[in-house]
Amino acid sequence: MMEEHLVDWSRAQFALTAIYHWLFVPLTLGLGFIIAFMETIYVKTGDEFWKKTTKFWMTLFAINFAIGVATGIIMEFEFGTNWANYSWFVGDIFGAPLAVEGILAFFMESTFFAVMFFGWDKVSKGFHLLSTWLVAIGSNLSALWILVANAWMQNPVGMKFNPDTVRNEMDNFWDILFSPVAVSKFLHTITSSYIVASLFVIGVCAWYLLKKREIQFAKKSMVVAATFGFIMSIFVILTGDESAHQIALKQPVKLAAMEGLYEGKTDAALVGVGILNPKKTLQNDEDEFLFQVEAPYALSLLSFHNIHAFVPGLKDLVYGNEEYNIESAQSKMDKGKIAVNALKMYKIAKEENNLINIAKYEKILNDNMKYFGYGHLEKPEDIVPPISITFYTFHLMVALGTWFLVLFGLILFFTMKREILNYRWLLISAVCSIPLGYVASEAGWIVAEVGRQPWAIQDLMPVGLAATDIGTTNVMISFFMFATLFTILLIAEVKIMLKQIKIGPKGGH
User: Fold this and answer.
1) Terminus-to-terminus CA distance in the chain, angstroms?
2) Where are the alpha helices (DSSP H) in 101-214?
3) What would the pLDDT profile of 117-173 be if each residue is shown by its tens digit?
């Protein structure tokens, strides 16, 4: 295992890069489709108003797209520089989705982006519209492969371990692509991104209406975005339900942390609002919450689609529960150490060309391989992620998601009734909800990534084993360099965006 400070700084650097990168991605994923909807209306009706409207939002899309690409490329390089052990251990699997993303999806969106942005009046309306749709689809295909790769880290499937190279190798591509975790993660992430983009469009339009300018443009853009956002808000509830179910099956410790659940229970209630008791630990009997509002049976229903199902708590998962056949972390650590030792003995047997021992230790390794990562943990409690961060970000995400559904409904209702200008408080709320969309989206990633600690790859590789031994100072220097660079890029994007918004749709691009 690496030096603790080195691992923490490497973790902080990747988190910094991922958080900044994700500030740009959701808008690209969702705004691409909103633009495609608007241009489709233009092509069908021939109304120049929709052409001008499409061009305006396309300009904002282009600004965001360009800066998002810069941060994404840096993140992929960090797998090689800061996470070399991880890349060696699973690069044969993890690299494949990233390669497909680069070869197919990214080239596709980049190629047609040029036609979409510079091809007005140079290609036919139909081809231009096709290019716009392909950019939107290509952006989402890019997200698909990245999310498949991430889902594999949460639920490693479709591979076999090669003890000769100490690498995991892909065994079944389709198991990786269509694993339930990958499918639910992709659908939940992209639909939540569509909500962020819808909030952005609605917020900008609300600002125009508050300033009493671009009235027709703002109202019509609002209808498109609010309709899209409202439908996606309902869809994100459904995908969120499936995501929670998959977490309950594959990452029960994360689910327990999301709910601050220490003691497992049947008929488990879902905490809607709550304040964790900071004195609560795995070893004491303090109450889990200082205050909470619960929905009866909802956690059992959400987790296992059965209102009476037993939902294991952190104590059950760390110390085991014989009644419900839950294995303790200590038992898994023992098996993990057997696997680690078997690998060591296998390598010795290979050097000695001892065929009997090669077969013997390979079998032991295969029998215990699914616990391999546990062999590197120091104590059973190490499997518990930071509970407070996981709990509060999860509930913040859910609360904001609920507000967005209400906001989309109200905006759509009053805009269709042509009364939206009478509700100044609603317009102000829409403007304020632009940053809240990003907060909710980032919170979702924090739940996903912090909640799966200490694992870089669930059950197979702890983060401490995945980092590159390159010296803490080097990582610290690059951390602050990236922090400065990303902040400059973000400020540049916001300033360019604000300038373009102030110019308005009449300015074109």
Assistant:
1) 53
2) 107-118, 125-154, 173-177, 180-210
3) 888 888 999 999 999 999 999 889 888 888 998 999 999 999 899 999 988 888 898
* Dihedrals phi, psi of 290, to nearest 5 degrees: -85, -30
Beta-carbon contacts of 250 under 8 Å, excluding residues fewer than 6 positions away, are 154, 155, 181, 458
Taking the CB of residue 284, how many other CB atoms lie within 10 A of it? 9
Report residue 248 as tokens: 């309950």
In terms of Cα–Cα distance, which of 86, 81, 37, 83 is closest to 57?
37
Neighbouring residues of 7: CB distance < 8 A, sequence distance ≥ 6? 1, 463, 464, 467
* 171 vs 191: CA distance, rounded Å: 30
Question: Position 263: which residue type?
Answer: E
Of 338, 335, 342, residue with least CA distance to 357: 342
Residue 28 burial (CB count, 10 A): 26
pLDDT at 1 > cutoff 60: no
Q: Which residue has the tokens 């190490």?
A: 382
CA distance 6 to 9: 5
Q: Is the pLDDT of residue 482 over 50?
A: yes
Give the Å distances, CA to CA, from 265 to 214, 218, 256, 289, 395.
56, 51, 11, 16, 20
Question: Looking up tokens 């972390």, which residue turns up?
Answer: 329
pLDDT of residue 469: 82
Report how far residue 204's alpha carbon sits from residue 65's, in angstroms, rounded to the nearest whole number: 18
Contact 230, 402 (CB under 8 A): no
**Rounded to whole angstroms, how far apart are CA atoms 267 and 308?**
4
Q: Which residue has the tokens 């980049």?
A: 110
Report the amino acid identity of residue 181.
V
| Contacts with 193 (C-beta within 8 Å, 6 or more apart), sequence order | 25, 26, 27, 29, 30, 143, 441
Q: Helix (H, G, I), strand (E, B), or coil: what is residue 321?
A: strand
- pLDDT average, residue stretch 257-261: 95
Distance CA 355, CA 338 (A): 20
- Rounded mean pLDDT, 387-392: 96
Contact of 379 with 268, CB cutoff 8 Å: no
Tens-digit pLDDT profile for residues 22-74: 998 899 999 999 999 999 999 999 999 999 999 999 999 988 887 777 777 78
Residue where the block lists tokens 């990245």: 146
Centre a 10 Å sphere on the Cβ of residue 205 and count the other Cβ atoms it contains: 28
| Alpha-carbon gap, residue 293 to 277, rounded angstroms | 14
Supply the pLDDT for residue 91: 79
**What distance in Å separates the CA atoms of residue 368 and residue 332, rounded to the nearest whole number?**
9
3-state SS class at 178:
coil
DSSP-assigned states of every residue in 287-300: -SEEEEEEETTHHH
Rounded to an integer, what distance in angstroms lies between the CA atom of residue 401 and that of residue 419? Answer: 25
Q: List phi, psi (to 5°) of 268.
A: -70, 135
User: Which helix (DSSP H) or strand (DSSP E) does residue 457 occupy?
Assistant: strand 455-457
* Residue 507 reports pLDDT greater than 60: no
